[in-house]
Amino acid sequence: MKTDTSNVESSNSTASLSANAVFEILLEEHRRDALSYLSQKVGAVSVDEIVEGIARRDAELTPERLETISTRFHHAHLPKLIDAAVVRYDPVAETIERRAAASVLDPYLELASLEDGRQPRSA
User: Fold this and answer.
1) 3-state secondary structure string across 97-112
2) Distance of alpha carbon 74 from alpha carbon 71, whole angstroms
3) What is the per-residue pLDDT across 20-42, written as a single tens digit (0 to 9) for each?
4) What are phi and psi of 38, to 5 degrees?
5) Count of alpha carbons within 13 Å of 47, Cβ hemisphere only?
6) Using CA atoms, how far apart are residues 84 and 17, in angstroms rounded to an integer?
7) 47 bridge partner residues
């Protein structure tokens, strides 16, 4: 008996993102910063660590700026990243982890960092 597997996606393959999803995810600089930061880490990191990394890249590491970035990240950026299935968020531990699907964004993140006049983060 022959089984048709033409429409079956391998469990080892990464989920594909539409062009619109890629552009939406990468539209905002702080989402790009978060994804770039996560690409350098293995496993989950605290959301506070990501927020601090974003503030450092903005060169504004003040308590007020950290609070502003944290609020915006939790309410605007994190939900988009979760919905796109490029990160996994643990609300109990307040950690975020990059998922395999995010790897399709890596070339665009590198281009965006060059366009922003920043050094790309090496893998």
Assistant:
1) EECHHHHHHHHHHHHH
2) 5
3) 999 999 999 999 999 999 999 99
4) -65, -30
5) 22
6) 8
7) none
